[in-house]
Every structure is written in structure tokens, then in C-alpha cells.
Design the sequence.
DNA sequence: TAATAATGACTACAGACGTAATTGATAAGT
DNA sequence: ACTTATCAATTACGTCTGTAGTCATTATTA
């Protein structure tokens, strides 16, 4: 199976942008999208992009003078892998205690609670 | 409020041990507890302990020749802070989508599902 | 008492990360 | 054609992390 690379906090912001695009995008599009999100210089974002390329989290094709970047790993895969390592670290791998901790603590709207119930019901079969 | 220090992956293992003890414990007790968990040399563990002291995550009192370590931050606080940053990174801060992603994906036993339902119900009032 | 063991302090070192500046190559404008 | 703007590549640098080794001090043991 494809190994999911470890994506750092700052890199995640870049990935989110890349994932959000339906088609490959230029470095500048990524920079523009991130200006609102993070207070980074364009060069900083370029660095993050390059590191993601090196990690094989994104790929690119050359389109004349610029590169077009696209994800090599899906968001779902990354979420899964990231959450697994998180749950492992904090809860020793047990998923249920984590949910329990959350349900006790988080502010959830009644609608969200309903939605969760629905999801759980769905899981029941 | 007290700032929760950022605790690294390896450091979490140490914290878990310190939290698990009801009274302050020596470095050696921590080392012994971790031998089974991680393949670390005692010195490695000492380093982690020292870093946690520096971060003010644990404190110590001198008891003759050795130090007795005890947590300065509660596990609940750390879990909360850690989870917040995790959810922020991966889900942009929205907790509900995370649960949704999990419920779709994780293997949960029927009992666990029941338990979750119960927790959600409990949250309803 | 002198050698040795134990324990904490200090030092080490490579790789990841956050944050960017500088350089080099190429395209576009004058 | 020469200058300038643009984009990617390379280099930079301090901090954090994982993973220890070495040193210094004190206690124990022969």
C-alpha cells in the first residue's frame, strides 16, 4: 500500500488548499489561497510545497513555465493516518475513550448531536 | 490560565507514566515503566524527563539523592489542548466532521456503539 | 579509604520544522 | 537585444525531536 507521508502542521494548510481544488493548481494559486489563512511569505509557502513534493504528498507537471500541483494522497487517507497516530499518542490507541472524552467536553449543537446519532444508527447494521 | 506546553510524541509516553502514578515517582520508576512500552535507553528517557521539566509539564522535589517527579499539568487539560490542535489542523476546527469521518471508518464493536449512543443521549439535555 | 556504581547534568548530533532570503533561469516588455 | 519581472531551486538558520553518550558528584562496597 502507499505509505502516507507524515505531514506537518504548516504543510497541512497547503494540502488543504491542494485538495480543495478540482484540478491541478499553480504555486501562486496556493499562495493566494493561503494569504488569508496564514501569515506567511510566498517563499515560505513555496518551501512547504517543495517539502510536500519531496515527501510525495503532492506531484506536479510542468506546464510551460510553471508547475501544476496535485495531490498524490487523498485527504481521507491522510485524515485516517493522522487520526490514528493522534489517538495512539493521546489515548493509547483506543478510539472509543477519545470519543467519550469529546462528547463530554465539546460544545455541540443539537443539530450536530442529531447528526451524530444518525451516523451511529447507520453504523448499527 | 496556565499555558499547556506542547508535548511531543515521545514525551507523551513519559507523561502517561507520570500521570498513572498516584504519588511522585523517581526517574527509575519511569524508566522501568517504559522499558516495556518503548525501546529506549535509560538516558533517552532521562532526556525526555528533563525536557518535560524544562517545559513545566512536570515538576520534582529532591528526595536525598534522587528526584521525585510529579505532573504539573493534568492529563485532561493536555488531552483537551492536544485534541483541539489536532482537530484544528486536520478538520479546520470542526469537531463534528471528525466524528463523522471516524464513525464511517473505524471498526467499533456493537458494545462500543451502544456506549456512544448512551453518551450522546446523555448529552442531549 | 579507595574503587565502583548510581544518578542527575551537560553535551551531541542528525533530521524535521517554521520561516524565509538569495540565486539562477527564463519569459516578457521596452 | 537588453533589462526586468517571474518562477523554481538552492541555501540558511534557529528550534524541536529522537536518540543517546559522557561527565561530575555522591553513595556504596570491598
Sequence:
Amino acid at each position: 500500500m502507499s505509505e502516507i507521508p507524515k505531514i506537518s502542521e504548516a504543510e497541512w494548510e497547503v494540502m488543504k488548499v491542494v485538495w480543495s481544488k478540482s484540478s491541478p493548481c499553480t504555486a501562486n494559486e496556493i499562495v493566494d489561497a493561503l494569504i488569508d489563512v496564514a501569515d506567511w511569505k510566498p517563499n515560505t509557502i513555496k518551501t512547504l510545497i517543495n517539502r510536500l513534493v519531496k515527501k510525495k504528498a503532492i506531484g506536479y507537471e510542468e506546464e510551460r513555465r510553471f508547475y501544476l500541483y496535485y495531490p498524490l494522497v487523498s485527504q481521507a487517507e491522510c485524515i485516517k493516518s493522522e487520526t490514528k497516530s493522534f489517538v495512539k499518542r493521546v489515548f493509547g490507541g483506543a478510539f472509543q475513550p477519545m470519543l467519550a472524552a469529546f462528547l463530554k467536553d465539546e460544545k455541540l449543537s443539537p443539530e450536530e448531536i442529531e447528526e451524530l446519532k444518525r451516523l451511529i444508527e447507520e453504523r448499527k447494521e
Q: What stands out?
A: Residues 6, 8-11, 40-41, 43-44, 46-48, 51, 65 of chain B lie near DNA strand D (CB under 10 Å from a C1'). Helices of chain B lie at 9-20, 27-35, 42-54, 75-91, 95-105, 110-123.
